[in-house]
Design brief:
266 residues; mainly beta; Immunoglobulin-like; 6-stranded mixed β-sheet; Ig-like_fold; signal; DUF1573; DUF1573 domain-containing protein
C-alpha cells in the first residue's frame, strides 16, 4: 500500500467518524449553565445505610434557552437525572445525583458530565467517605455446602499446571450457622500423610504424580469467615484433565463436594 493511498484512507476514516459521531469531536463547555456548586461532599455515610441523593441547581445565564439532555458517570454506583424541560434565560434547572455506597467502602470522588443541546457540556462532582458495613454472609458466598458452611467456589480451576510446577489458590468460606464448625477436608480416597493427601496405587481417581496440599483442620466460629490455601504440585506430566473431589466435613458430617480441576500442559 502506497503512502498516498494510506493518507486517503485515513482522511476518509476521519471524515466518516466526524459525520457519525459529531458529539465526540465538537463538544464544548456550556458557559451559560452556572451551577450553584460544582462539588458536593456527602460527608461520612454508612455502606449499608442506602443510597444518598443531592440536587445540583443551575441558572441559565445566557441569552438562549438551555435544554439538558442527559448526565453520565463512569461508575455504575452513580445515577444522574436531569431536568428535561427547557430552561429560559435567568431561570433555573437541576441535576439529581444519586450515589450507592453498597460494597464501596472508603473515600470516593465521582465526576458527572452533564450534556446539553448543541453538543455542549458541564462537569460536576460528588465525593465523601463510606464507612464499612456488615453484609450477610449469603451475599458474599454463593454456594451453600450444608450445616451453615458457605463457600465462594463450587469448582476450583487451577488451569494448566506443567510438570514440576506449583499452583496455589485461596478458598474463602463463612459460617452462617449458630454453632462452631470443626472443618476438615477429605480428598477422594487418597493416602493421608500428615496434612497432605496424595495418590496411591489403590486410588484411581487421583492421577499419579499429582499432589494436593490442604490444611488438615479449621475451626470456624458462628458468623466468622476463613480462608485456606490449596496447593497443587505436578510431579509428572498429566495426559488429560484431572478432576479431584474434595469433601468438606463439618462436625463429623460430610457436606456437598467441591470439585478441583487441573489441566495438562500442551
Amino acid at each position: 500500500m502506497t503512502m498516498s493511498l494510506t493518507m486517503r484512507l485515513l482522511t476518509t476514516l476521519i471524515t466518516l467518524l466526524i459525520s457519525i459521531c459529531p458529539t465526540a469531536i465538537a463538544q464544548t463547555l456550556n458557559e451559560s449553565v452556572r451551577f450553584d456548586e460544582k462539588i458536593y461532599d456527602f460527608g461520612t455515610i454508612g455502606e449499608t445505610d442506602g443510597k444518598v441523593t443531592h440536587r445540583f441547581v443551575f441558572t441559565n445565564t445566557g441569552r438562549d434557552t438551555v435544554t439538558l439532555v442527559r448526565a453520565r458517570s463512569g461508575c455504575s454506583c452513580v445515577h444522574a437525572e436531569v431536568s428535561r424541560r427547557p430552561v429560559l434565560p435567568g431561570r433555573t434547572g437541576y441535576v439529581d445525583v444519586t450515589f450507592d455506597p453498597d460494597y464501596r467502602p472508603g473515600h470516593f470522588s465521582k465526576e458527572i458530565v452533564v450534556f446539553s443541546t448543541d453538543n455542549r457540556y458541564n462537569r460536576i462532582w460528588v465525593k465523601g467517605d463510606v464507612t464499612p458495613g456488615i453484609h450477610p454472609l449469603t451475599e458474599k458466598y454463593r454456594y451453600d455446602y450444608g450445616h451453615g458452611l458457605l463457600m465462594e467456589y463450587k469448582v476450583m480451576n487451577f488451569g494448566t499446571v506443567p510438570q514440576g510446577a506449583t499452583r496455589i489458590r485461596s478458598l474463602s468460606f463463612g459460617n452462617n450457622s449458630t454453632a462452631t464448625l470443626n472443618l476438615t477436608f477429605h480428598i477422594n480416597s487418597g493416602e493421608t500423610k500428615g496434612n497432605r493427601l496424595c495418590d496411591n496405587a489403590e486410588s484411581a481417581v487421583i492421577p499419579a504424580g499429582l499432589i494436593i496440599d490442604i490444611p488438615e483442620r479449621y475451626l470456624l466460629k458462628p458468623g466468622e469467615e476463613g480462608k485456606i490455601d490449596v496447593t497443587v504440585r505436578m510431579l509428572t506430566q498429566l495426559d488429560s484433565m484431572a478432576t479431584v473431589v474434595i469433601t468438606p466435613v463439618a462436625n463429623g458430617f460430610n457436606l456437598q463436594p467441591l470439585t478441583l480441576t487441573v489441566h495438562p500442559a500442551k
